[in-house]
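As a representative case, we now present a protein record of this kind.
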Amino acid sequence: MAYLVLAYPIISNSDLELIQKFRKVNDKLYYDVVKPHFTIVFPVFRLSETEFIAEIKKQSNNLPSFNFSIRCSTMTKDAFSEYYHSLLVPDEGYSNIVKIHDKLYRDKLIEDLRLDIDFVPHIGIGNSIEKFKCKKMVDNWNSEDFEINGTVTHLTIVEFENNVVRTLDEIKLEI
């Protein structure tokens, strides 16, 4: 069992439909598991549910909500598997997510912070073991001008087990 912190963005219905339509075809790993999101804290296994929730609540005190804009897609190689991932990466809001990520990894989560992997805020939209298939996904998005605007107003603490995401708690960010 693992605990994570996700930020489910508030976006227009048309943008959500666009993302989900693409994910349904291209995101074989997570489409049926979790809605579009930014991962703020990656899987933590060594803390109890109570400890994890208490730490996230402590560190997220007074964090501000923020707006974001996404205008590009990129890809990355998964550090833990043979998969490549296609991502939507925010132009605006990027630094907000990085700062929240860094704040939540202070104190009790410092041992869980992966310093050997770059943290790139993103919404996952596709995956494949074939790198050029992911490249084609990225090129598909980037061949058109697009802009997805949204807001992050909450952090969601979840449990992930047996490919199921279960919400444990939600933290409202300051307005």
